[in-house]
Amino acid sequence: MHERLESHFETVLARNAGEREFHQAVREVLESLGPVVDKHPEYVDQAVIERLCEPERQLIFRVPWTDDQGRVQVNRAFRVEFNSALGPYKGGLRFHPSVYLGIVKFLGFEQIFKNALTGLPIGGGKGGSDFDPKGRSDAEVMRFCQSLMTELYRHLGEYTDVPAGDIGVGEREIGYLFGQYKRITNRYESGVLTGKGLAYGGSRMRKEATGYGTVIFTEEMLAATGRSISGRRVAVSGSGNVAIYAAEKAIQLGAHVVACSDSGGYVVDEAGLDLDLLREIKEVRRGRLTEYAEARGSARHVAGASVWSESCEVALPCATQNELDAEQAAGLVGNGVIAVAEGANMPCTPEAARIFQDKGVLFGPGKAANAGGVATSALEMQQNASRDSWSAAYTEERLTRIMKGVHERCAVAADEYGQPGNYVAGANISSFLQVADAMLSHGVI
Ligand code: NDP
Ligand code: 2IT
Predict the structure, then answer these.
(1) SS3 for 259?
(2) Which of 34, 127, 422, 438 could cross-link to 2 by cystine, CB 3.0-4.6 Å?
(3) pLDDT class for 415, splitting at 50, 70, 90?
(4) 115 lines ligand 2 (CB under 6 A)
(5) Sheet holding 265-269, edge to edge
(6) 85-104, pLDDT tens digit by residue?
(7) Assigned architecture for domain 210-369
(8) Residue 263 beta carbon below 6 angstroms from any ligand 1 atom
(9) pLDDT at res. 70
């Protein structure tokens, strides 16, 4: 790390003790910014980097609700409004038992740069709760969402802070959250949440956008080196929103997608994943991957193991942070992987990412590769603001153009700062410059 950034990083460690994932996300960005600091010392002199690492506002609140047995349950919820230099705070809500401040802050920090890379006017924020939706009835999820929004609504607004989904938060949860916001505020403010259902202001292609975008980004990286995903053996991790639609787009482009996972293990299906079956189990029944193997003869379920022990040419980690470590990365390299794109946020450990880069594997970091989801959220906000609704074909065309733009911004910045082909450096530098310039223009705030 550049010596002028080391003391900032020490401050981050001291001020945010115990927030391991947040430290990891900040370190990765600061490690890329050495050449920028040499060229533009004003970013350090004006404490832009120091300010960027400190959220503008952090909310932590109690969420009490009653379960189906009449017992009172208490969860903790968070919203970190990290940076509004480019637009209203924008970023998802995650419901998962592992959620604590350090995870929300890592996600919010990443979101600042990801959102800048889209070229759209959105700032960075993130939220969530340690609520575990698994095994809960629709009525319990509704009561939890209503209680959460009863506090959160006062901090939101289409020009202020616009949440969406993430792990454990999909169309069902966004519906309950929107209903409660509308009821409390007595305003039909469509643009206050994204990922809404199509019936009441959602955007076509939002559900598909993150996974599709990840594969479009992968195809751009491959095309830049004269290759394509067509005919390649692909593995994805996870079997949620991002994973399913990454698999779908890869299949559309002629790839052979053979594996996916959930927290219980993974399935390998040499005949190629049957997405209708996967969607039925995961999206409709909210079931487990073991059911996939039971229903399909060509598939085998491996319990309690990582999908990254399987061989593939293109690896798309789409589950969660730090799910792919150095040993698994070395194994994938040994088995001939040529491209890795992070559909999830920070799924590769720093050591794993370094192995891919050192071995010449194309590596698309999450803040670039999965930017299609939030970008399409911004398109949803545009449709809501103009009281319009676009076709799937037009929205996908916009998404494709945006992802090509993200790839281009990363590639150009990497070249300009002497690290051609390094998408991590390119993503961090390009997005930092945009946010930092906006912050300098706004003065010391
Ligand atoms: P979903 O809740 O739809 O799916 C998550 C998937 O990952 C499930 O298969 C889940 O398995 C698995 N998973 C989650 N946590 C763990 C864990 N701790 N260990 C093992 N497996 C786990 O979430 P999304 O698909 O929306 O999100 C996946 C990733 O993509 C996250 O990193 C998210 O931040 C990122 N992302 C999401 C975007 C979006 O638009 N939704 C946009 C950009 C990034 P199980 O069901 O067994 O828990
Ligand atoms: O990590 C992410 O970019 C998301 N979960 C999507 C955020 C959004 O506002 O659509």
Answers:
(1) strand
(2) 34
(3) very high
(4) no
(5) 299-303, 265-269, 256-262, 233-237, 314-317, 339-341, 362-364
(6) 999 999 999 999 999 999 99
(7) 3-Layer(aba) Sandwich (3.40)
(8) yes
(9) 98
Strand (E) positions, 282-329? Answer: 299-303, 314-317
- Could you tell me the two tokens for 136? 């809960």
Domain with CATH 3.40.50.720 in the chain: 210-369
Q: Which atom of ligand 2 is nearest to the CA of 122?
A: 9
The architecture of the domain spanning 56-188 is: 3-Layer(aba) Sandwich (3.40)
Structure tokens at 301: 């379920």
Does the annotation mark 404 as catalytic?
no
Q: Which of 105, 114, 126, 196 is catalytic?
A: 126
Cα-Cα end-to-end distance for the chain: 27
Taking phi first (over 0 means left), then psi (-120 to 50 degrees means alpha), and beta for anything else, what does residue 226 get?
Answer: left
Does ligand 1 have an atom closer than 6 angstroms to the CB of 168?
yes
pLDDT at residue 405, as a whole number: 98
Task: Give residue 130's pLDDT band: very low, low, confident or very high (50, 70, 90).
Answer: very high
Cα–Cα distance, 272 to 274 (Å, whole number): 6
Alpha carbon distance 404, 48 (integer Å): 29
